[in-house]
Amino acid sequence: MKQAEIIKNLTDKQIREQLYVTQFIFIIISLLLSLFLFDSFSTWKYLFSVQFMQIILFGVVPALGLVGIEIILSKIIAAHHLDDGGINERVFKNQSVFHIFCISMIVAISEEVLFRGVIQTTFGFVFASTLFIIVHFRYLKKPVLLIAIIITSFGIGYLYEVTNNLLVTIVFHFIVDFLLGIYIKFRK
C-alpha cells in the first residue's frame, strides 16, 4: 500500500500522532548515537550557540528567502509537480496554528539534532545531507520536489558547516516548516 493511501485512511489526529512518534524516534536515535560517536555527552553543549546576529543572518534570512521562493514556485509550477501524495496537505491543512507551530518546532529540533548534530558532526556534510534526502523519500519520485529537497538539504548542511551552530539550522528549519505549514493551511 502506498504512503498516500495509508495517509487517506488516517484521521488528522492519527497523522499528528505518527509524526510525533517518528520525531521522538529521531531524538532517541540521536541520543543513542551520540553516546557511541561523541567523546562525551557534554559534546552537545558545544553544538549550540546563542548568537543572535548569526541566527538572524544564517537562519532567519535564508529561511524567509526559501519560503518566498517556494510560494512563488507554487504559483507558477503545475500543482501535480509539487504534490507529495497529499501528505503535507493532510499534515498541515486541518491543524490549528498552534499544532502547526508544535509540529514545526518538534520536526526542526529532532531532524537537525540527528542530521546535523550527530550525523554531520561525525560523518560529514555530504553524508548527512544525502541521508536527509533519503529520509524524505516521498519527494524522490517527483523531480521538482527532489530538486527542492536536495537544495534545502545541502543548504542546511552548508549553514551548519559555516556556523557550527545547531540553533541556526533549527531556526531555519522551523521557519520554513512553520510558514509553509501556515501557507498550506490557509491557501485556497
UniProtKB/TrEMBL annotation:
Organism: Candidatus Pseudogracilibacillus intestinigallinarum
Bilayer-crossing regions: 20-38, 50-73, 94-111, 117-137, 144-160, 166-184
GO annotation (BP), single: CAAX-box protein maturation
Domain CAAX prenyl protease 2/Lysostaphin resistance protein A-like, chain residue ranges per copy: 95-179
Endpoints of the signal sequence: none
Keywords of the record: Hydrolase, Membrane, Metalloprotease, Protease, Transmembrane, Transmembrane helix
Name of the protein: CPBP family intramembrane metalloprotease
Record GO terms (molecular function): endopeptidase activity; metallopeptidase activity
InterPro entries xref list: Rce1/LyrA-like_dom (IPR003675)
